[in-house]
């Protein structure tokens, strides 16, 4: 007869086996989430009501990460955060460069979420501070990339900017690790911002082309083979989508034709259907 004591022992052995990965005990995602939220609230010294349900808690964690300045943080926090974000990344429908079907030479077109793309580098449309978006849960690409990568991305960007000593110029680029993203690197570039109701000037057009060239050059400097571009300046910076796509494609084609490059794949990643139509028409003439 199996005693209650033995049943309890078997239960705990089963739990330990379920929670053990490569010999280490892993806490579940809810416990990780609670730990991360508690840490960041404690760091701020605020009193914040923590919601009960998982999805509201997850939104709160993203908000706390978004507003957090680049400060030192404990190794324990980073370990739990990295396990949590990596698990989230692996749970998504990830896409490898080799799985992209729409190809024109070394140029590829892909419609999807850039933070699910396994490439050597993805491009982030940053602002001149290069520290990511501080607006809680903002839907810009800068916020999405930083939220998925983890707090280390802002810290690394901050070290770069402290060494530089001034805001990032429009049209330049910097490279960092991608941390908890499926890509290896993030290349940050600041595109031209067009005032509402205005048309891009010739300088704006050249600045946008410079963004693409700078990203390609820094990818080559690091011997990367694949790079994925978002639509630089076409969001809150108001650059017209079709004109931006024309500049992007022309600049990339000229670079690939004229440069001894390590790049084998240059991906234009689009999210919306209209952006996809624009790029498809320009690339494939359909």
UniProtKB/TrEMBL annotation:
MF annotations from Gene Ontology: hydrolase activity
Stretches assigned to the Macro domain: 94-286
Enzyme Commission number(s) of this protein: 3.5.1.-
The name this protein goes by in its record: O-acetyl-ADP-ribose deacetylase
Main enzyme class: hydrolase
Database matches in InterPro entries: Macro_dom, Macro_dom-like
Top-level taxon of origin: Archaea
CDD domains: Macro_OAADPr_deacetylase (cd02908)
Keywords: Hydrolase
């Amino acid at each position: 007869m199996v005693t209650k004591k033995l049943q309890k022992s078997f239960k705990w052995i089963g739990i330990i086996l379920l929670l053990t990965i490569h010999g280490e005990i892993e806490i579940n995602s809810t416990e990780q989430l609670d730990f991360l939220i508690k840490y960041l609230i404690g760091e701020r010294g605020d009193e914040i009501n923590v919601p009960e349900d998982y999805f509201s808690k997850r939104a709160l964690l993203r908000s706390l990460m978004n507003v957090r300045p680049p400060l030192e943080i404990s190794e324990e926090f980073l370990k739990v955060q990295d396990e949590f974000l990596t698990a989230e990344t692996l749970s998504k429908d990830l896409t490898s460069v080799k799985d992209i079907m729409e190809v024109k030479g070394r140029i590829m077109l892909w419609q999807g979420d850039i933070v699910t793309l396994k490439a050597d580098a993805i491009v982030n449309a940053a602002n001149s501070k290069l520290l990511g978006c501080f607006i809680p849960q903002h839907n810009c690409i800068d916020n999405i990339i930083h939220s998925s990568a983890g707090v280390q991305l802002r810290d690394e960007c901050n070290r770069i900017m402290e060494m530089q000593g001034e805001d990032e110029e429009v049209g330049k680029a910097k490279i960092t690790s991608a941390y908890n993203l499926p890509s290896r690197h993030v290349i940050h570039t600041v595109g031209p911002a067009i005032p509402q109701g205005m048309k891009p000037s010739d300088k704006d057009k050249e600045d946008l082309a410079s963004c693409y060239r700078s990203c390609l050059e820094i990818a080559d400097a690091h011997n990367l083979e694949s790079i994925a571009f978002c639509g630089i300046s076409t969001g809150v910076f108001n650059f017209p989508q079709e004109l931006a796509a024309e500049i992007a494609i022309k600049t990339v084609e000229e670079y690939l034709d004229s440069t001894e490059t390590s790049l084998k794949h240059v991906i234009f990643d689009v999210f919306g259907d209209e952006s996809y139509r624009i790029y498809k028409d320009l690339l494939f003439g359909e």
